C-alpha cells in the first residue's frame, strides 16, 4: 500500500512518543535517575541535569520513538484484551520465553554501542527504580514498556559515557594532526 | 501481571504461527523457493524438499513463532484501522524510516548467524518471489509480514549452508581426536 | 584469495577452541557454575551435570568457536606486544569505550535469543566467578576472553531455560493437532 | 590489567583508522560512490560531496574506528602468516562459514538503524565497486576489510536517508507544539 503513503513528520512522532511514556506513568526524571545510578560511579561530578539532558537526546532518535509507539500500543491493546490468542496470553502473562519485547527494545539499544547493550541487559535483569515498579504493576500491562525504559536508560547512559570521555579528552593537551582537526566529534 | 501467568504451550504457538502465515497468503513452498534460489548456486544437488524441510525447521523456533504472531497481528490491526495514530499511518504507509518491522524480523535472524543477517539484508532489498508480491499487495497491509518472510527464508538458507557443510565434512576422512568425537554437531 | 581456499573441518576448529579456553585458564566447570547460578533460581532441581552438558552443547556452535579463536588470538598477541599501536594500548588497557570485545562475544549470543543477550549484559557488568578472575588477572590479557566466557555462559543458560520449558510442556497433557506433532522441537 | 590503563585519545584513533583504510587501498571517494549508488534512486539531487561528507561523519564514530583497527590488523597479520592455525587458514581462505568478519562490521552497523543493517546485507552479497575489488584481490587478504567497507557505506547511506528526510520535513510547514520545538534533531 505504498502508493497512498502518508508522511508523518518527525516532530509529531516525537510528541506522541513522549506523551505516551507519560500517560503510562514514566517521567523523564525517573529514567534520568537510573542513568545517574549507572554513570555516577564513573563520573563523581555527574549532575541529574546532565542525565535528564541525555535522556532527552535519546528520545529524539526516530528508532527509539518508533519502538515506544509500537511497544506501548501492544501493552495497551493487551490490557484492553484487543489482541488475538495466543499472543494476548503471551503478553499479558509476560511469558518468560517471549522475547519480542526485548527484541524491539534492543533494536534501539544497538544504536548506542556495545556499552548500551550490556547496560540494557543489566537493567533488564536488575530492574532498578521505575523499571521495577513497571514490572510489578498489577493495574497495567507493561510487558513492552519496562524493556523500553531499560533501553532508553541504557542508551542515555552509554551516550553520557562517550560524552564525558570526549569532554575529558578536550581538556588534555594533544598535538592534533590538521587532517583530524575537523573530524573530532 | 506476572502472578496470573498463563502458560501457552509451544505447540499451540507453533500451530497459530503457521496458520497465520497461510491465512496471510504465505505458503511454505513459496518461502522454500527463495531458499532454493539463494543456496542452489553453492549446492547444485540441492532439492526443493531439503529447502522445505529447512523452512519447517526454522518455523519450530520460538523466537520466530513469536515474531510472526506479533508482526502479523500488527499488520492486521493496521489493515482494520484499529491502531492509534501516528502508528497507524507509519505502518499502513510502510514508512521508509520506520524500522520496527525489520527489527522484529532481525531478532530471529541473529539466531542463524551472520550469513543469515546478510541474506536477510539482501532479500529485504531485492524482494524476490513472494516477498515482492507481499510488498506490492494493495489489498493487504504487509509491512511486518514481508520482513518476516525475508527472515524465515534467510534463516532456512543459512541453516542449509551449515548443514550442507557438515554433510560434506562427514564424508571427508579426518583423524578425529577422541575428545572431539561426541561433540561434532 | 578465495581460489586457494583451504577447508578447515569443524572438529579441528572445535578441538582448538576448547583447548585454547583451557590454556587460558577457563575450565568448562567454571563456566557451568555461572550457568547454575543463573538458572538455579528458576529450576530448583537443576544439576551441575545439566549445566556442563549445556556449556558443551554451546561450544559445538561454529559461530562461538570462531569467536573464541579470534578473541583469544587477539588477547595473546596483545600480551606479547605483537599488535600495532594504538590497538595494542586499547586492548592491553581494556579501554572502557573499546567495544569490539563485546561485539565479537555478542555475535554468538544473538544465536540463543534475547534471554541470552540480557544474561550476557548482566554477566558483563556483574562479572561473577571465573569472569571476575579473568577481569582482575594481572599476568594475562583477557580483554576478549572475559566477554567470551560471558557469552558462553549466557548462551548455555538461555539454552537451558528453553530446554527446561520444553521438558515441562512435554509432561503437560495437551491435545496436539496432527500437523504440529512432528514439528515440536 | 586495568591498573596500568593507558588513555588513547579519540583523534589518534581516528587518524590511524583513516590512514589504515588508505594504506589498504580504500579511498573515501570509493566508499562515497557506493553511498551515491545506494541513495541516488531516492534522492535525485544527491551530490557526491554529500556522500563524502556522510562517509567522513561515519568515520568519526569510535565504534567504527575500533572495528577498522581490529579488522585491518587481522587481515595484515593473516597476510604475513602471523596468526596461529586454524585461524590463519580460516581468514586467508575467507572461509564461507566464518562470520567474525561480518560480526565485527555489523557491530558498527547497528548504530545507524535497521536501514543500515539491510543495506549492509545487500552490499555484502552484491559486492559493488571497491568492495568487489577487495573481495577479488589476490595480493592482499581483505577478509575483514571488505566487510568494514560494506559497513561504512551502509552507515553513511542510512545516515543520509535520515538527514534527507529531516531536510524535507524542515521545509514543510508544520504546526509544532512548543515542548517539541527544541527536540527536533
Automatic annotation (TrEMBL), chains A, B, C, D:
Domain of life per record: Bacteria
Listed name of the protein: Phosphatidylglycerophosphatase A
Database matches in Gene3D superfamilies: PgpA-like
Residue intervals of the YutG/PgpA domain: 41-161
Alphabetical list of InterPro entries matching this protein: PgpA-like_sf, Put_PGPase, YutG/PgpA
